Amino acid sequence: MYKSLYSYSLTRHYPYRWFTPVLVVGGVIAIAGFSILNVAAQGYELTPRSSVNPNETSSQRDWLSNWPTFLVGAHPSCEDTVIPLQAQIYTNKSAIPYTIESVWKIADGEQIENLGSLVYHNQPLQQCNISSIVSDFDIQARSASQMAMLPVGGTVTTTAVCYFGSKEGRTYVQLNGLFDPVGPSYRNYRSFIYSNQSYQANLYWGHSMMRTYWADMMWKFAESNKKRGNRWYNGVVFVDLLPEKQIATEQDIMDKDFLRLDCFLNMRQDPDTRTFIEFCDSRKNMTMLAELGGDDVPDLDFWESINNLSKATYFTVLADLGRDDASMPNILSRPSLLKDFTQGLAFTRENLGTAFTWGLHDIGTKSFDPSEFPSVDLAIEPAVLSTTYLCKVRVLKNPANLIMAVLVADIVFVSALWRLYKWVVDTFWVGEAATLPQCACYKPEEVKNGEVTDEEQIPLQSIQSGFTSKDGPSVGDIAGKSRSTEQIANRSGSEA
């Protein structure tokens, strides 16, 4: 007889009543469990999506959020964003636009390592310090629309340094903030976009003071200039923090000498020649400016307005950058200090020249009263730079791909479980009966309707000795007849 390289196995029914129920119930449970597991492992895919809050996007909550990571196939994530130098950016509070001036790290040995761009991932800004505030005045170098709105204009520029933490250590960034209430038409930006009396109330009052004192400063500059025969056509005032005030108390920040000033004002000598006159070049504070006179200090009435504007700018920018701590308490987050600091707001607004009231209709025009705003939250929250991140979020596959992926995986798992189940039964139950003869017999009374009613098999000795049934020959008779038949067949073959 030909023998193929392949073979097959003979099978027989398992003689256990519990085998089929366990298989059916366990199979249903296993298929359901494997399907859920395979949906988690194979049923989702990652799709790109832009986000302004990568921490929230990458930690999105769904039914797989609490699963072990090795069981889930698709994990949401967001990449770092790279912001080039000189890019304009806001914080998440959208108060003042900033320009990224420089980025650096402090390497080993206290060496500064300058970076060509800012690699950022929504880290909170920490310990922001303002190194300077620059107020510019300009009369002539302005557009027609600017002159139509205000006869004198200018900007307020702040320079701040912050740092944020990362796996590689601290990264420092210099941010130049710009406040220009009446900017040129080509400069498309907005400031204090979302702040009002109930939302971001601290920035609302900071904006109110900055805008009012800025208009008052421009008005007083224009009025002082009218008294001069040779008028100033532009100027600049530098303001910085006194070195001994880097760590300040509430009493320090309310002092009028909290900041010091330096200025340059330019006038025309003749139509073709320009010169500048330098004043307060030794960085005078407000008390010194009040005591000096003559050629040391120009005859201007705006020194107090500059001081108020600079202090309002200082703490408003710090609030926008999220700075408010024991070493530098913020006026805008303390109701009593804010009330005292805004006492002159209404008076300044009422006495402002009519030509300089443009744009003051949507800001606070009187001092802050805590009793009028008992539920207003003035707390300053940490700030992050507002930018867009490229993220990958988890979404369910389309039905056809989902069914195919889960079905294939279920077949693999169920097949493996079926083999394991058979191996366990064959090893621990059928294995004990494997030592008996292959032709194990049962007593007739143990057979009913062709099925064995008692799984206990007849010992080998009973099979060898044979037994006589009530309905048929004994095993020995059957064996004898089988041998006789075999002998007759052999004899017939020989004769042939």
Automatic annotation (TrEMBL):
Q: Where is this region: Disordered?
A: 462-496
TM segments?
A: 20-41
Q: Please, which domain of life does this record's source organism belong to?
A: Eukaryota
> Which UniProt keywords are listed?
Membrane, Transmembrane, Transmembrane helix
What is the name attached to this protein's record?
A: Transmembrane protein
Regions of biased composition (Polar residues) lie at: 485-496
